[in-house]
Amino acid sequence: MTVRAAADATLPAIEARNLGVRYNLRLTRKTTVRQTFSQALRRREGPTHFWALHDVDFQVDHGESLAVIGPNGAGKSTLLQVLAGIIEPSEGRVTMRGKVSSLLTLGAGFDPDLTGIDNILLAGAFMGIEDREMRRRLPDIVEFADIGPFIDAALKTYSSGMRARLGFSIATAVDPDVLLVDEVLATGDQSFREKSRQRIEELIAAAKGIVLVTHDMHWVTIFCNRAMLLEQGRVVADGDPAEVVALHQEHMEASRLAKEEEAAKHRLTGVL
Ligand SMILES: Nc1ncnc2c1ncn2[C@@H]1O[C@H](COP(=O)(O)OP(=O)(O)OP(=O)(O)O)[C@@H](O)[C@H]1O
Ligand SMILES: [Mg+2]
Questions:
Q1: Whose CA is nearest to atom 6 of ligand 1?
Q2: Of ligand 1's atoms, which has the minimum distance to the CA of residue 233?
């Protein structure tokens, strides 16, 4: 259950208690002809469900910026989707305090046939911001995105970096109390990344809560005052960014070596 309450700087911006997300592997995808066929070929056994998050317990105070790091498939995006209210947790409880703005996947929530301007207004409507208010913010959002005349072209004509610029500009222009960002900063070019960095610093200075998912360890240490390492859906470490990043890199190196060893063993048995 995701509870939304009014912002109160004395209470944590985010409280996640014993969160668990269980995906049902049999029901999550629509069945296509090809899948039906491959399912018929596959053995019937195998897991029917899968815990993408388990026992995840943390809070984010106002003014904290938390980086969530971990290997592919660790559950980072799942966690952000729970915080954004897109996925209902199967276990536990989330309380988000204040206005939550999220930038989860590239262009999610955008309509490819609408222009940049219309997508800005649409995003505002999605976030429950009044049309008049959104039109007041429009010039700033357009200026920050800085994609020139493309702002009047259909979104489907944008490069992925341009989509990210527009998305970031919208998500951060609406005075969020809590900002959720999943990976999107990585696609921006050097000058946009610099601008984004400044804007995130402003949001942190305004005592907002931020949760940033990224594979860019440099960003973790410059942007965030705390980092949480997720592995196989569980919190493995939570604390000082430099220490948590170091632990993550150690674990990644250990798993790379283990895989190399495994591959070498297979090569050896193949030769013999
Ligand atoms: N709709 C779904 N149905 C079933 N399993 C899913 C679904 N979405 C994600 N998963 C699984 O849940 C796990 C966590 O996925 P998630 O996208 O949260 O990982 P991530 O940490 O964001 O990884 P990445 O670094 O690759 O973005 C993965 O094993 C993934 O295969
Ligand atoms: Mg992800």
A1: 23
A2: 14
Residue nearest ligand 1's atom 31 by CA: 73
Q: Cα of 88 to ligand 1 centre, how many Å?
A: 15
What are the structural domains of the chain? 62-86+175-271 (3.40.50.300)
Is residue 161 within 8 Å of residue 189, measured between CB atoms? yes
Question: Distance (Å, rounded) from C-alpha 7 to C-alpha 185?
Answer: 26
Considering all CA atoms of the chain, what is the largest pairwise distance in Å, rounded to the nearest integer? 74
Q: What are the tens digits of pLDDT across the range 149-201?
A: 999 999 999 998 898 889 889 888 888 888 888 876 677 788 888 888 888 87
251-270, pLDDT tens digit by residue? 999 999 999 998 888 887 76
Predicted TM-score (pTM) of the model is: 0.82
Q: Contact, 243 vs 83, CB < 8 A? A: no
100-128: burial string, b at 16+ Cβ within 10 Å, e else: bbbbbebbebbeeeebbbebbbbbbeebe
